Every structure is written in structure tokens, then in C-alpha cells.
Amino acid sequence: MRARLLKDTAARHLGRILAILPGLVLALITVGLLLRSRPILDVKPLPDLLFSTSWHPLRGEFGFLPFIAGTLWVTIAATVLAVPLSVLAAIHLSEYAHRRVRALMRPLVDLLAGIPSVIYGIWGILIIVPFIKSYLAPAFGATTTGYCVLAGSVVLAVMVFPILIHVTIEVFQAVPSELREASLALGATQWQTIKHVVLRKARSGIVAAVILATSRVFGETMAVLMVVGNVARVPGSVFDPAYPLPALIANNYGEMMSVPLYDSALLLAALVLLVCVVGFNAVAQLVLLRLERKAL
Amino acid sequence: MTRRTLEETIFKALMRLATVIVIAALALILLSILIKGLSSMSLSMITQTPKGGYYLGKEGGVLNAILGSLCLAGGATVFAALLGFPIVLYLNSYADKRSNLATFARFSFDVLWGIPSIVYGAFGFTLMLFLGMRTSLLAGIITVGFLELPIMARAADEIMRTIPRELKEASYSVGATRFETGAKVAIRQALPGILTAMLIAFGRGIGDAASVMFTAGFTDQLPTSLGRPVATLPLAIFYQLGTPVPEVQQRAYASAFILTVLILIISLSARFLSKRFSKHVVR
């Protein structure tokens, strides 16, 4: 009897200690990156670093603007491509498609959500890059190697399709069917019901899903790095090459110990990524919280 | 009347189109990897390690990366499970739902889930420099373990939350402690979901390249010890694709095929296992 209670108490205390761990890891990463990016922040003020376009590590010039601009271009273009397509497809699958089609699509979508980003990158190199080079860019009168912002965003958009569709379908399915029936009973068409009832009810859930997908796109490294061209210049159009922040870290980290301040600059880039992702998450949490409160 | 039916028709067509585009894109990925990979696949790819001059087109395979990836992701999954499940058990059996600690832990998991793997990799490497460690299987396991931890914990937490309260109350009422209820009753109910969570995390771990790049390193040898660098499939794909030799690039496609098949196996076994282990589940 004593032993059982002892075990219970021990488990409680161990659990309480371990439950601090995720917060501790988060704090450790933040503080660690902050400490390691201090050397460069001591030399140069943050705005100078973030808004300068001159990236010449050997001369001690670390301007992050090309990389930040590259990240923003790719992220925004991918979101613009992915969100309408995914939401429309999710509506179709959830509201119109036959139950059997839905049952067939579910496992497929889950499977694709598990495909590693390197595979998406290879697909980009095999199909998207040549397609943009020989067909799409000439059609718009642009010349490009195919390794450009657009290639990166298409690959990323396709990569987040499964996640976005999965979550959005779940949000739609959570809308009570009584609401739909009430609307249909009043004589609304199915599309009117979706537009005025289902989408309105599902709005915050969709927003949260979009934010999560965006943060995934934002931090994705390998798939982007393989197709985006990696040229440290601010892109002027979707056919220009870009060099997003994660690619910068992946390509240069580990080989730059001899250049002063270089590792500090790269860890600052990691810190920028971290701060943005935490920001995205906080917004998504707030949206979800509002959703939960509304549901009560 | 005609206007709204017209609108319906237009949007229906749009939705169909969107669904077709999405499915076509995703099917194209699987098809192009399978076709391209299968055509450059050979037995030596999965039975041999890279021999001298492999990256110039000489013979060899990627057995080092296959075994390395399995060791790394397997170790990381065990590591994440050892840390994650006690936490999830605590959150669902002991902690008050609205307690600050529980809210804070769940929020931290959510944030950690969103942190890009490259940040884990860069931070892991920084920490290794600080501790004087070199790239090794162990460092890779720990880094990928922390990458997998929030994925696994969040999924397991979702499952544990759906366990009916009556089940726990029945267990309490016959005198079981919270620990016994959590570890013997709730776990059994959640087992299929927990296995799925572990396999999802394993899949993420085996497919991630950015976090192992600096921490696990790369080698042409088979993994033999925790203290030595280890090769991983995503990095093998990446490096082979980066060479200018066409034969080696072909091998990258074959390696991508191997990785995709591994992921398929993981995904299918997740389905199979969660069915298989649901015999103890009370409905």
C-alpha cells in the first residue's frame, strides 16, 4: 500500500519537474542565440543590420535585407498560391465530394504530409525549375535559370497543401450540420450556405491554419534552398533568384569560423527566424483562444 | 434566382479545379520520384556503402545513409518518447487543466513545434562547440530528439485528452492511484494514438536534413558508435544532387526513392498498428 502511494507521489514530482522542460528548452534556445549574436549587435546597431543590402562578410559588412526580402517574397508568394487552392479543395472535399472520395483522400493527404522536404525539393528541380525556365518565364517575357522565387514558392505551396487541407477539412467538419440544414431549409443554395454559414463559422479556424502553414513555409530550409537560386540580392520579381534566411544559415554555418563575426551574424539570422515564428504562434494561439471562447 | 445558381456553378467549377490541381500536384510528386528513382535503382544502392570515388560515379551504395538514418531517427524517437510521455502523462493525470504550469507547458510545446529545424541545428551546433563535442550520432540523436519532442507530445496530448472521464473515474473508484490510472488504464486506451504519434515523429526525424547537417555530420562508414559521425539519407540525397556527375545525380533520385518508400512503410505501419493495438480500447 505504502509503495503504491510512494510511486504515485514520485511520479507526480517527476512529472512536475519534467513539465518545465519544454519551457526551459525554449528559454535556453532564445537566450543562447541572444548571447551568441551579441558580438555583432555590439558592433552594429540592429536596424543597420536588418536594413542594409550589403552582404560582404570578408569586409565585415553584414546586411540582412537581401535575405529578409528573399524570405518574405518566398513566404508571401507561397501563401498566396497555397491558401486559395487548399481552402477551395477543402470545401469541395468536405461539403460536396462523396463520402467515399473523402475517405480515400484522408489517408493520402496524411501520407503526403509526412513526405520529407528534400523530396519536395527534388521534385522542384526535376519538374518545376525546367518548366519555369522553358515555358512560364518566356511566356511572361522574362529570362531565368528557373531557380527563382517562383520555383521556391510553388514547391513550398505544394508542400503545405496536405497540412492546410487536413486542418481546414477538420475545421469544416466541426461546424454543426444543424447550422447547414437550417440554412438550406430557408431556401439558400449549397454555395450560399457555405459562404454565409460554414465559412463564417470556420473563419478563425482557417486563419489559425493559415498562420501555422505560413510559419512552416517561413522556416523551411532544404526544399527552398534547392530551387531558389541562392543569390544574395533583393529580388525584383518572382523570376529573380532569392536567398532566404534558412538557406543562408544552412549554406554557410560550420564553415565560417575563420571570418570574424560571421557565426554571430548567422546566429542572429537564426534568432530572427525564431522571433518571427514565436510571433506567428502567439497570433495563432490568440485566434484559437478567441475561437474557443466563441464556441462556449 | 439565376444569379445565385450561376454563382454556385462558378464556384463549384473553381473548387473542382482547385481539387484537381492539388491532387495532380501531389500525385505528380509521388509519380516523378517513384519513376525517376526506380529507373536508377539498383541492388548495390541498398547493400553497399560508398566505395572510393563514389561521388565521381564509381560503384557503391547508400547503405551507410539508410542505416544511419534509421539509427538516428530511432534513437531520437526513443529519446523524445522518454522525455515526452511522462510530461503528457503528468499533464493529463495530475495537472489541473487550468493550472499555469500545464498552460505554459502546452504553449511551449506549440512554440517549439513551430521552430524551424535549421534553428535546432544551428543551436545544437553552438551548444556542441560550447561543450567541446564533435559531430556524432549522439549529438544528432539529441538534436533530432528535441525536434521530435513537441511533435510527439502534442499528438499524444491530443489523444490523451480524448480519453473519457468515466474511464478514469471508474479506475479511481476502485482505489487506483493517479499514476496507476494514467500508466495502466489511460495508456491502454490511448495506445493506438500514441503509436501513431511516435511514428509521425519518427517520420519527421528521418526526413529532416537541416537539423542533422551540423550535428550528426556525414560519413561513408556504417554507424558503429554513438561518438562517431553518421550519414543520413536526406543529406546523402542533397550531397549527391550537388555533384556535377550525372551518374551520381541519378543515385540521388534512387536515394530519394528509398527515402520515400521508407516513409510509405512508416505511414502504412502507423495505420496497421493503430488498428492492431486498438483491441484494448473501450468504445
Features:
heterodimer, A: 296 residues, mainly alpha, MetI-like fold, 13 helices, globular, B: 283 residues, 2 domains
Overview of this protein structure:
The complex is a heterodimer of chains A (296) and B (283). Chain A has a single domain, classed as MetI-like fold, CATH 1.10.3720.10. Chain A is built from 13 helices and two strands; from the N terminus they run ααααββααααααααα. Chain A has helices spanning 2-19, 21-36, 38-43, 46-51, 65-96, 99-113, 117-139, 149-174, 177-185, 190-219, 222-227, 245-252, 262-295, and strands at residues 55-56, 61-62. The mean pLDDT of chain A is 87. Chain B has helices at residues 2-39, 43-47, 63-93, 100-114, 117-131, 137-161, 165-173, 178-207, 212-215, 233-242, 246-276. The mean pLDDT of chain B is 86. The radius of gyration of chain B is 23 Å and the shape is globular. Chain B is mainly α. The N and C termini of chain B lie far apart (47 Å). Chain B folds into two domains: 2-39; 46-280, MetI-like fold. At the A-B interface, helix 1, helix 2, helix 5, helix 6 and helix 7 of A face helix 1, helix 3, helix 4, helix 5 and helix 6 of B.
Task: State the total count of DSSP E strands of chain B.
Answer: 0
Low-confidence stretches of chain B: none
Taken together, the total number of domains of chain A comes to 1
CATH architectural type of chain A: Orthogonal Bundle
Order of helices and strands of chain A: HHHHEEHHHHHHHHH
The N- to C-terminal Cα distance of chain A equals 42 Å
Tell me the overall shape of chain B. Answer: globular
Largest interface: A-B, 81 and 89 residues
The radius of gyration over CA of chain A amounts to 23 Å
In the CATH hierarchy, the architecture of the largest domain in chain B is Orthogonal Bundle
- How would you characterize the largest beta sheet of chain A? 2 strands, antiparallel
The helix content of chain A, as a percent range, equals: over 70%
Number of separate structural domains of chain B: 2
Side by side, the strands of the main sheet of chain A go 1-2
| Structural classification of chain A | mainly alpha
Q: Considering DSSP H and I runs of 4 or more, what fraction of the residues of chain B is helical? A: over 70%
